[in-house]
């Protein structure tokens, strides 16, 4: 069951907002994290950040190799190497583009209960973490592309919106 939150698609301004640091790990935060997970599952994503369902909060979730990662107030402490591969985002439906990311990262975060942890990730997981942490800083997949590509994607999405409105 989904609440009154809705999936936000580019160019929804909430995707660019500064997110708030999480300070209280109470029951309502718990509920929100569950909701974020449910949205991710519902829309079949590998990761989802709070702004993508309309909340400017520093929390994102990732599901990778049967494990849920809850990233609260995450910070990339170290990055190494480079990888280039196709990336998608639930806020850019139908768009897949090659994006260059670090190959390996060390991320410090808190879990859903507020307990600090460190995770070393490489390959796909490192990519997913960089993508979600970008969201929490108002940064999006298209910011990593050339200005020309970016314009093409904007046009494609606005055409899709017009077609949705016409039907
Ligand atoms: Ni995304």
Describe this structure in words.
The protein has 167 residues and is of the alpha+beta class. It has one domain: Peptide Deformylase (Alpha-Beta Complex), CATH 3.90.45. The chain is 30% helix and 28% strand. It has 3 helices and 7 strands, in the order αβββββββαα. The chain has helices at residues 27-42, 123-136, 147-166; strands spanning 47-49, 59-64, 67-80, 83-87, 97-101, 104-110, 116-122. A 5-stranded antiparallel β-sheet has the order 1-2-3-6-7, sandwiched between helices. A two-stranded antiparallel sheet has the order 4-5. The two termini are 27 Å apart. The mean pLDDT is 95. The site of nickel (II) ion has 5 residues, from α2. Nickel (II) ion (NI) binds at residues 89-91, 131, 135.
